[in-house]
Amino acid sequence: MNKVYPIDVTSGYPRGASPLPSAPVESENVISVQRVVRAMRRRASLMAAVFVLAFAAVAIHAFQLKPAYTATARVIVNTRDQNVVDIGAVLSGMPANSSMLDTEAEILRSRTLIEKVVKRLDLANSPEFNWNLAPPSDWDVRVGQIKSFVKGLLPFGSASAAAPPPPAPGSPEAIEAERAILDGIIDSVRGRIYVNRLGPTYIIEINATSGSPKMASALSNTLAEVYLDNQLETKFEATKRAQEWLNERLAVLRDELREAESKVEAHRASTGLLRTGDVTLTEQTIRDINAELTQAQSEYAGKSARLRNMNEQMRANRGIDTIAEAQSSGAIANLRAAQTALSARKADVTRRYDVRHPEYQKVMAEEADNMRQIEAELRRIASSLEQEVLISRERVNSLQTSLNRAKGELAGNNRAGVEQAALERDAQATRTLFDEFNNRFKETGELEGITDADAVIDSYAPVPTGPSFPNTRLNLMLGFMLGLALAGFAAVIMELLDNYMSSPEDVEQVSGVPFIGQIPLLPAAGNFTKAKVKPAEYLIEKPHSGFAEAYRHLRASIMFADIDKAAKTVAVVSSLPSEGKTSMTFCLGRMAAMSGTKTIVVDGDIRLRQLTEVSGVKAEAGLLEYLFGEARLADAIQTDDPTGLHILPLTDRMHTPRDVFGSRAFDALLSMLQQTYDLIIIDTGPILLMAETRVITSKVDQVVVATRWRKTHRGTLRETMKILRDFHANVAGVVLTFVDLRKRSHHAYTSANYKAYAKYYHDK
User: Fold this and answer.
1) In the structure, what pLDDT confidence band is assigned to residue 746 with cuts at 50, 70 and 90?
2) Which residue, 420, 447, 314, is CA-closest to 375?
3) In the prediction, which pLDDT does 735 show?
4) 138: pLDDT confidence band, cut at 50, 70 and 90?
5) pLDDT at residue 557 in the model
6) CB-CB neighbours of 3 under 10 Å
7) Alpha-carbon dihedral of residues 165, 169, 170, 176, nearest 10 degrees?
8) CB atoms within 10 A of CB 528
9) Would the pLDDT of 410 be above 90?
10) Rounded average pLDDT over 156-177
11) What is d(CA 675, CA 658) in angstroms, rounded to the nearest whole number?
12) For residue 577, is pLDDT > 80?
């Protein structure tokens, strides 16, 4: 049963007339939900294919991956300070900061520790890590077979070169090869180990991955143990190096201290900076001389004062009682006692005798002699006191000279003391440094046996019970998302590359003329059946089908394209071949004839004669014969029996080089046909390929452009319209041909869907 293909026709408007208000045309550059949905529906098959391929590729890859197991051990980094006796540079604990933990995490993945793990677990003999021991995979076997086959085909393939002999054991080449293998194993193990800090804590996780659960657990636990052992070894080595260095440094400092102290004593002896307690001998001498000088100066001042007083009293004759030295003299005291006795005798003699009495004279003589003795004693005392003053002055001068000499020596000692102090400071600094290093040496020796690691193993890695890789569910989800993304990307790319005419909006926007109709795709052509339905026969068999209705709309649009002048001559053109131009011309002529319009179709494609072939007429004379005067018009015109349509065919003759359609004969033919027929439809050749078509378009009333749906490019239609404008053709509009109504809604807005039209039209 044949399907009914409805048609939604947009009629051309009479020139100068305005259409009724309609819904606004959706702009080409505006992205809306409807346009996105239509784009997805258009590219549904492509998107489905891309999605299935991407998802299938990911799924196949996921299911072919070899399972891997991950074991996790935990290490707690000890951050307490271990300055037992302030030897922080050797055995101090780690600082509690993130940088330290990051550093320790990198140390756990260092090549040194990984190499120790490799040697402890003997991974050099494990095929999982030593690729030289691993059996070749199926892919490697196939590649090797292909290589062998290709070598066998080559002329020199059979003559295989002898393999070089292996290097001798212990040779540099052998050592280098072994090292290269070991480096490869280390790199392989490092790629299986992941170290990370657990949040903001001081716990470091060691994750090891392997194809064997036991090997994964062994890798993780062994690395943790090697890490702790390495810390202990590092501290032991640091302690040993510190002791050795301290011992060597102590020997050097001991010699330096001995030399510095010797320099101090030698300089002190050479400069006389001998000391008694806290002061030097010179300072002690100056102190003693200064004390004696002060005492001597005091004695000299006292004696000088006494001498001056005695001399003044003696010169003033103030009596012996005013002289202090006379009061303290025993001889003066005796003479004064004798003077007192003589005074008593003198008084008694004076009373008893006369002054001329010998006794009186005797007493007076004794008194005078006593006074002379007193004066002589005073002179002796004064002379003795003067000698004491002279002696005191000499002593003061002597002490002052000694003091000045000692001060000179002290100034020299002070100048020498500057260098002495520098030597003593150097000696003291050397002594302090020696004592410090000596204490450190003893502390290091005491702490050598109490060194602890800066980390402890929090938990050993158990043997994993399930694989950690691959995560099939996650991979399938990623494959699903990747498939969707690639499908969407492919759809976007195809939409961006889509340059075909798909909708009335595209037609009017590109061509600048009205869209006057669309010709639906027939069932046989759409379903790719072996028996193809001819459009002209289908039009007669199904007069009430959507296909027939499309031509009724097209005929009405052409006839009323210009309201001022009825279109009698119409040329149907196309840009390129195979756009349905000829079938549309013949069907349009049949529909016009069936509608009661006296119609003739003219085959103007002088190269291919497609209209003549489609109509099936057998003509001995045609258009060219009439124009060349070789036949009459009545003999050239044929009649379509089912519809009464008249056909002016082309005979099978060689192409003429003459300008047929630009001749006066062709113009006369058009005038004659217009007098006889109501509608003349001319089938032309592709306008981009044939110059004759351009001449025809300039001579007819209206031109209808046939554009194949989803086959004709936008640029092609633009070029066609430019040619028509250059030849001043009156274009009635553009018709889309071979429109798949089922897919039409994917490319353009339509107010009714396929099912609604299918219910309305019926086959009769």
Assistant:
1) low
2) 314
3) 93
4) low
5) 86
6) 18
7) 50
8) 7
9) no
10) 66
11) 27
12) yes
CA 174 to CA 519: how far, in whole Å? 82
Distance from C-alpha of 86 to C-alpha of 447, rounded to nearest angstrom: 11
CA distance 375 to 365: 15
pLDDT at 85 over 50: no
Is the pTM value of this prediction over 0.90?
no
Angle at 176 between CA 175 and CA 178, to 5 degrees: 65
Q: Report CA torsion sign: 95, 98, 101, 103.
A: negative
Judge whether 463 and 214 are in contact, CB under 8 Å: yes
Q: Does 453 have pLDDT greater than 80?
A: no
Mean pLDDT of 621-649: 90
Contact call for residues 417 and 273 (beta carbons, < 8 A): yes
Confidence of residue 346 (pLDDT cuts 50, 70, 90): confident
Strand partners, 706: 574, 735
670: its two tokens: 């058009």
Neighbouring C-beta atoms of residue 654, cutoff 10 Å: 6
* Cβ pair 463, 218 in contact under 8 A: no
Closest-CA residue to 223 (of 123, 132, 95): 123
| Distance separating alpha carbons of residues 732 and 570, to the nearest angstrom | 9
Tokens of residue 672, six digits: 């004659």
Query: Cβ-count burial of 685 within 10 angstroms (0-12 exposed, 13-18 middle, 19+ buried)?
Result: buried
Whose tokens are 């055995």? That residue is 91
Q: How many CB atoms lie within 10 A of CB 387?
A: 12
Query: pLDDT tens digits, residue range 559-573?
Result: 877 776 778 899 999
Grade residue 706 by pLDDT with cuts at 50, 70 and 90: very high
Show Cβ contacts of residue 130 under 8 Å, excluding neighbours closer than 6 positions.
123, 124, 181, 184, 185
User: Is the CA virtual torsion 674, 676, 681, 684 positive or negative?
Assistant: negative
- Reduce the secondary structure of 578-592 to three states and give it as a string: CCCHHHHHHHHHHHH
Residue type at 161? Answer: A
Please report, as a single letter, which amino acid is at residue 21: P
DSSP state of 174: H
**Cα dist. 245→239, 242, 436, 441, 666 in Å?**
10, 5, 14, 9, 120
205 pairs with which residues across the strands?
A: 74, 196
As given in the structure block, the two tokens for residue 332 are: 């003066």
Count other C-beta atoms under 10 Å from residue 672's C-beta. Answer: 11
* DSSP 8-state code for residue 500: B
Q: How far apart are CA 450 and CA 91, in angstroms?
A: 10
**Low-confidence winner among 38-47, 317-326, 679-688, 746-755 (lowest mean pLDDT):** 746-755
> How high does pLDDT run on average in the chain?
78
For residue 140, give both structure tokens: 């490697």
pLDDT reading at 551 higher than 80: yes
Contact by Cβ (8 Å): 604, 610:
no
Structure tokens belonging to residue 227 = 């890490």
- Tally the residues of the chain: 764
CB 264 within 8 A of CB 423: yes
Burial pattern 542-581, b for ≥16 Cβ within 10 A else e, equals beebbbbbbbbbbbbbbbbbbeeeebbbbbbbbbbeebbb
Amino acid letter at 166? P
The answer, yes or no, to whether residue 581 has pLDDT greater than 50, is yes
Which tokens belong to 285? 């001498």
Neighbour tally for 89: CB within 10 Å: 10
- Distance CA(501)–CA(504), nearest Å, equals 8
CA nearest to 633, candidates 617, 647, 644: 647
For residue 146, count CB atoms less than 10 angstroms from its CB and return exposed for 0-12, middle for 13-18, buried for 19 or more.
Answer: exposed
The tokens describing 673, both together, are 């046909």
743-762 burial, b at 16+ Cβ within 10 Å, e below that, comes to bbbbbbeeeeebeebeeebe
